[in-house]
């Protein structure tokens, strides 16, 4: 590992520990030449599947593009960046869990819609309106009705769990 201060190759590891829920290793290093200390992170690089577009073409998966789409839907919404990070991590976990070389872009879009439904209703409708290409007001109403039904189901499930916990 090159020292970022003097560019010498001679560095030693002082301390190692797991970071980001065990997904990375954080290493504290010291340069043997200039004695400056710095931190490095190691993370496993898994091959992402290609994304199969609607026209049949293949595209490399880019986390940056996924995050940008989610952030665009969340623009000017009161959402914590930690919630976005967690949503992106869950989508990537699903993507890698498929163990396929290709995943349809439509599937990734559906995962984004599911995550946005958990984070923010307005962002969910924004993304769904573009992704599902709403053509008229009725399409918006159908999507809002679906969102309301899902909220009702989720709230009743939460109530049942809370009731069982109190018993």
Shape: elongated
Over the alpha carbons, how many angstroms does the gyration radius reach? Answer: 22 Å
- Kindly state the mean pLDDT as a whole number? 85
Report how far apart the termini are. Answer: 57 Å
Instruction: Provide the low-confidence segments as ranges.
Output: none
The overall number of domains is 2
**Multimerization state:** single chain
Widest sheet, order of strands: 1-2-3
Number of strands: 6
Strand content: 15-25%
Helical segment tally? 5
Order of H and E elements: EEEEEHHEHHH
Largest sheet: 3 strands, antiparallel
The helicity comes to 40-55%
Q: What class, by secondary structure content? A: alpha+beta
Characterization of this structure:
This protein has a three-stranded antiparallel beta sheet with strand order 1-2-3, with no helix packed on it. A three-stranded mixed beta sheet has the order 5-4-6. Helix content is 50%, strand content 19%. α4 crosses α5. By secondary structure, the protein is α+β, with helices and mostly antiparallel strands. β4 and β5 form a beta hairpin. The longest helix has 30 residues.
